[in-house]
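User: Structure please.
Assistant: Input sequence and predicted structure:
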Amino acid sequence: MTRHGRNCTAGTVYTYHERKKDTQASGFGSQKVRFGKDAVKEFDCCCLTLQPCKDPVITEDGHLYDKEAILKNIIHQKKEIARKLKEFEKQRTRTEKEAEELAKAEQESRAVKFAQQESNPIGQNYADKLVADTKNKDGGLTDDKKLPSFWVPALTPQAQPSQLKKPDEKVRCPMSGRPLKFKDLIPVKFTPINDRDSKTSLISKTNRYVCAVTNDVLGNSVPCAVLRPSGAVVTMECIEKIIRKDMMDPISGKKLTDKDIIPLQRGASGFTGAGVTLEAKKAGPTIMA
């Protein structure tokens, strides 16, 4: 310990441990939490309902949806697009009408001013010059340079209504944000596991499906893909070791291309991310020391 160690005031009085403890107790500051296995979507669950798919379909990006859920989402997006387009058209019509009225009023004002100048050109010019000199006397500001006043009703600035932008007319995937068409969805056929357990429902089982070729159990920790011609789900290991040799769909017997192999976007096992953010963060007010 140094000579002045006991009287040292360079360190923080409010320690990091105390700040973190008070933050968790009071709710101040940013809250962080790491997702566990139970908080991550299973590979065979719909990205919208987060429940096992009854009639699964997949996009070209590998996002799995239940056919009924994605159809409802597409219809909802189309209704919202129609509503926003209607509001945008109303705003554009109103703006054009206001611009026409403003141009008409300005034209009438010019006509009135021209008529006054023609009736008394010398007197009107002298009066305008006198008013301008009065406003600029002693270095005073003109009306266009005066700051707005919040206590004088005549000088109170008016808030302009927010302008709506033209909405996007394309239906987009809820997960990837790319354009989506219902006809581009690919039906998926999972191969149920054959464990000879007829009493337990399929949803209640931990292991529900297997690879259509190798019968390996599928899960969030097993990378898998969907074959476009047959819709079968196989593991990526099966694709690399078996299917890519002759690029033939083992279920339907059709030729495959790289676009016909769609990697299935899955969740995580709780320890590996698998491309999914496993940490949530919520910003909150900062507590002062």
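The chain has four helices and ten strands.
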